[in-house]
Each structure stands twice: as structure tokens, then as C-alpha cells.
Amino acid sequence: MVRFKHRYLLCELVSDDPRCRLSLEDRVLCGLVRDTIARVHGTFGAAACSVGFAVRYLNAYTGIVLLRCRKEFYQLLSSALPFITYLENKGHRYPCFLNTLHVGGTIRTCQKFLIQYNRRQLLILLQNCRNEGEREAIQKSVTRSCLLEESSGEEEHLDSGDEAAAEAME
Amino acid sequence: MAVFADLDLRVGSDLKALRGLVENAAHLGYSVVAINHVVEFKEKKQEIEKPVAVSELFTTLPIVQVSCTHLDVDLVCITVTEKLPFYFKRPPINVAIDRGVGFELVYSPAIKDSTMRRYTISNALNLMQVCKGKNIIISSAAERPLEIRGPYDVANLGLLFGLSENDAKAAVSTNCRAAILHGETRKTAFGIIATVKKPRSSEGDSDPPPACKKSKCED
Q1: CB contact B161 to A (< 8 Å)
Q2: Per its UniProt record, what InterPro entries does this chain match (chain B) (predicted)?
């Protein structure tokens, strides 16, 4: 079979500063990851990982990032991710780190994991929310996610649930 | 899923910072955390849910040998930030593994500074060659919440340190649990230092020593 096999790394950007997530961008993250791999694994690492490397999905509200890499070199990428310490955008430097949630062979498996993860996060947010309006918004998202589980429109749930949750968080 | 533990959080005396750190660790998926109190020469660890486990920090060879074979410790924490002036010798390390003493590698200097990173990796590889990856724990000497990494990432760091993939995952989960239980058995059954991975102590503290002796006589 002539097919390039990839590994998809699902990561979450964790930071103290709420502006850090909002300034997440394709190119910024791409450059950052490449620099980090070059620092940790040197010239060989940077070259090997940059062949199939791409940022496939980016959600600025929840800080979820999906990175793609070739299967032979995904360990170079995954072992270099802990060394990311800051995100630099337009001259502002925000300290942050990437937390790997899941490694999958296809986008679909990562999506399934992300849906379950988001559901769990919504429930955790429900416990922590402080006022009535937020509580109602989150409960609505939770019931909507349970209904959508039966239908096939799960992808919409991903984004809409995230935005509601992100608004509730801020 | 296995229980993930981070057995080294260095905090000063600031309670609020400590709380932020522990919350961050819980959010990342750690179920057990040990807070390190630096007490002059010896370091004493206090755990949140379970009783005290003792670990010791050393820099010279004689202390290595003594602590592996005789001292009553659970974990030997290796300062990875300088070029160690000695090589690890195989006999004392094997004795330590038999006794159940674990070796701890710290990774937060590696995240902060690039020269430290080099020393960390070289010392870690050195240790791996002698002990073949058994009884190793990886933990962060984190002082701020941004220095902790999630368990999956720490297992990947283990790959960099020369562990195999299985060993790296064990370094974050099962070996940590073994060290904690080792500390527990030390407290409950004096004089018996056994490499028990899953002891049934806690209830019936005073019974284990005489029971063992009885069974030996009966055989």
C-alpha cells in the first residue's frame, strides 16, 4: 500500500494568562514547535519532523491543538513537546506549556477522544461555576451534547460546546 | 488506567503557591503528589494522602553506597544538574533494587536551561546503563505551576532518558506507587525491609513479623 502513515498528537495549551490562548495561530505554533525540536534534537530532528508536519486543528477558546507528523518520527516530536515554555506572538511572550492528551493514527480517533474529553470538562466546569447564568449555559451544553450523541452531528457539538464553555470560563 | 504520581514538588513556604501547584497537577491527571521539604542535609517528603516516605539527596560516592545498602530510605534522588564526579557502580545499585529503593530523576532543570539539559540527559543515560531502567521514577522539582508536565509528556521524557517505552510509563505510574507502598511498609513493619509491590499491611500492623516467623517454623 502506498500511503504515508501519520500520527496525530492532540495537545492542550495550558497557561496562566488568558490572552495566551487567544493569540494562538497556525504559523506561530508551527514555528514554535520547529524551533523546539531543533533545540532538543538538533538539525536531524528538525529536518526529519518537518517533512509531514502540519497543524491540523486549532481552537483558540479551549487551547486544543492537533499536530500531525510522520509515523517514523513522531517520537522526536512527542519527546520535544515538554520543552516548550513560552508562546511568542507580536512581540508578547506568554509563559505556557503543552499537555499531550492523546496520540492517534487518524483524525477520527482523535476527534472521538476530544469529544469525550470535552464532555468531561463540561461536567467539571459545571461543578466549579459560580453564578446562575453560567450554570444554565453549561447545563444547556451538556444536555445538547447528550442529545447529539445519538445523531450524527457530533462535529458541531465540538465547536459549539467549546465556545459556550469558554465564555462560561471567562 | 494506572495511578500517576509526581513525587517531587519543591515549594517554599507560600501556601497559596502550593495550592496553585497542586491544583495544576490534579488538572493534568496526577492522583498522588508529594511535597518536598528541604531540611538542611536530609530531605523529608510529606504526602497528601499517605504517610511519610523518605528520600535522600546525595552527591558523593560513599554516600551512594551507604544509602543504597544500609540507610532506611525509599528513594534516592540524584542531582542531575552538575557533572557527577563518580560513576555508578553496579553492585550497590543491584542491592538497592533488591531492597526496593527507587532512583529518582528530576526533569525541571532540563526544561529551564540548556546546559542543565545536557547534564540531566547524560547523567540519566549513565544511570540507565547501570540499572537497566528498573525502579526509576521521574518527577519534576517544580516550583511554579508552569513547570509541571502531564503524565504522558513525562513518559515521553523518559524515552529521552534512555528508558524503553514500557519502562517510561512505569516510571510515572507503577514505580511511584511501589515507592509509596515501600514507605508505608517501613512505617508499619519495623525491621523488615521487603520489596513488596502490593503489601497487605495497614490492617494488623503488629501481626506481620510474628506471622512470618511462625510460618517458617511450621515449614
Answers
A1: no
A2: Pol/histidinol_Pase-like, RNase_P_p30
Chain A residues 70-109 within an 8 A CB cutoff of chain B: 75, 78-79, 81-83, 85, 95-101
Q: Is B73 on the interface with A (CB under 8 A)?
A: no
Judge contact between A96 and A82, C-beta under 8 A: no
Quick one: pLDDT at residue B60? Answer: 45
Same domain, A68 and A123: no
- Domain span at A5: 1-105
Average pLDDT over chain B reads 68
Helix axis angle for A132-150 and A154-169, nearest 10°, is 170
Option in B114, B150, B160 nearest A79 (CB): B160
pLDDT tens per residue, range B101-141: 778 888 877 777 778 888 888 888 888 888 888 888 888 77
Q: Report the distance separating Cα A126 and Cα B119, nearest Å.
A: 45
Chain centre distance of CA A42: 25
Same domain, A89 and A100: yes
What whole-number distance in Å separates Cα of residue A163 and Cα of residue B214?
66
| Chain A residues within 8 A of B145 when measuring between CB atoms | 16
* Chain B residues close to A16, C-beta within 8 Å: 145-146
Give the lowest-confidence range in A47-61, B5-19, B84-98, B190-204.
B190-204
Query: What residues of chain A lie within 8 A of the CB of B114, using their CB?
Result: 39
Q: The complex's ipTM?
A: 0.75
Question: Is A94 a member of any domain?
Answer: yes
Beta bridge partners of A67: A9, A55
d(CA A48, CA A34): 11
Same domain, A59 and A143: no
CATH of the domain at A53: 3.30.70.3250
* Domain co-membership, A54 together with A97: yes
Residue A35 located in a structural domain: yes
Rounded distance between C-alpha atoms, residue B154 and residue A79, angstroms: 9
A170 lies in some domain: no
